[in-house]
Design brief:
CATH architecture of the largest domain: 3-Layer(aba) Sandwich
Structural class: alpha/beta
Order of helices and strands: EHEHEHEHEHEHEHEHEEHEH
CATH class of the largest domain: Alpha Beta
Low-confidence stretches: 14-47, 50-70
Shape: elongated
CATH topology of the largest domain: Alpha/beta knot
Helix content: 25-40%
CATH superfamily of the largest domain: SPOUT methyltransferase, trefoil knot domain
Mean pLDDT: 81
Number of helices: 10
Largest sheet: 7 strands, mixed
Radius of gyration: 26 Å
Number of domains: 2
Number of strands: 11
Distance between the termini: 32 Å
């Protein structure tokens, strides 16, 4: 799409260099032992020690098995359960398929692709570790902790409130704690939704839900197969696109009112060059210390509340 002329320019919105010595960035722990006399005593001590160690090891192993399942409350296993979950429209983030799986497994993979669910082929050992002692039948799936919506639903929700859309676009964010924190900030700042890519990105896991402190129930999240096309869609709906990255205009001197989408880059990568080029302008957060970047969720919170303040 051709670059649009940006009316948000002029003395107030011109790119400002940080003062000397300042940096800009977008985001962006004697005891004695009694002697044991005699061969029998030593043998008994050793045997007892081995038995105790064996029992302890067994107990530890038994304790670990259920714990692994508890860490994956949204893990589905077995061909029939996964087939029915997909047919019922349950949100699935990813399907794991054993490389040499045959029969109905192929039909499940085909069904998943029709629903836009990413399919990853793995060795049997991977599935055995995910579901130890369980009959996974060569297939497993990660169900989302919450239902996704469409991008259009986010825009419609803003329109229903009579408000200009304020949307957060996450460019390959990988840390679930960051996503949870961003959802929490988005809710507090009155943002209308968050958009994430369907690949190379954290999804709505149980960890995200916990980190959001309940905000996952109130902030709609849309998943798209192509962020670049999604940006084009947002532009066609009248939204301005602001990338939060290095070497941009001070966010405090930028116009964040009106229909707006904020792009937050992934950890350590920032906003990808393609999305940065598609953006109408780039905004940055001045840094005054020795570290030249902020955590992605911190950067998102700062800019979101600036946008919220300008709208009120």
């Amino acid at each position: 799409m051709p670059k649009r002329d940006n009316p948000r320019t002029g003395p107030k919105y011109e790119k400002t260099a940080a003062p000397a010595g300042k940096k800009t960035a977008g985001r962006g722990r004697t005891a004695g032992a009694a002697k044991v006399s005699g061969t029998a005593s030593r043998s008994a001590a050793k045997t007892g020690g081995r038995s105790a160690a064996a029992k302890t090891g067994t107990a530890r192993s038994a304790a670990k098995r259920p714990q692994l399942q508890e860490e994956n409350p949204n893990l589905l296993i077995g061909r029939n359960p996964i087939t029915e979950a997909i047919k019922a429209g349950r949100p699935i983030d990813k399907l794991l398929m054993q490389k040499d799986a045959e029969g109905s497994a192929r039909q499940i993979a085909s069904l998943a692709r029709e629903e836009g669910i990413p399919v990853q082929y793995v060795d049997k050992l991977v599935l055995d570790k995910l579901a130890p002692g369980k009959a996974h039948q060569g297939v497993a799936a990660y169900a989302a902790a919450h239902k996704y919506v469409g991008v259009e639903n986010i825009l419609a929700a803003a329109k229903a409130k009579g408000e200009d859309p304020l949307v957060v676009v996450l460019d390959e964010l990988e840390d679930p704690h960051n996503l949870g924190a961003i959802l929490r900030s988005a809710d507090a700042a009155g943002a209308h939704g968050v958009i994430i890519p369907s690949r190379r990105s954290v999804t709505l896991t149980e960890t995200v839900a916990k980190a959001s402190a309940g905000a996952i129930e109130y902030v709609p999240v849309a998943k798209t197969g192509n962020l670049s096309r999604c940006i084009d869609l947002l532009k066609s709906k009248g939204l301005w696109i602001a990338a939060v990255d290095m070497d941009g205009t001070d966010y405090r001197a930028s116009d964040l009112k009106g229909p707006l989408a904020l792009i937050i880059g992934g950890e350590g990568k920032g906003v990808s060059p393609n999305l940065k080029t598609k953006s109408d302008y780039v905004i940055s957060i001045p840094m005054y210390g020795h570290v030249n970047s902020l955590n992605a969720s911190n950067a998102a919170a700062i800019v979101l509340f600036e946008a919220a303040g300008q709208r009120r």
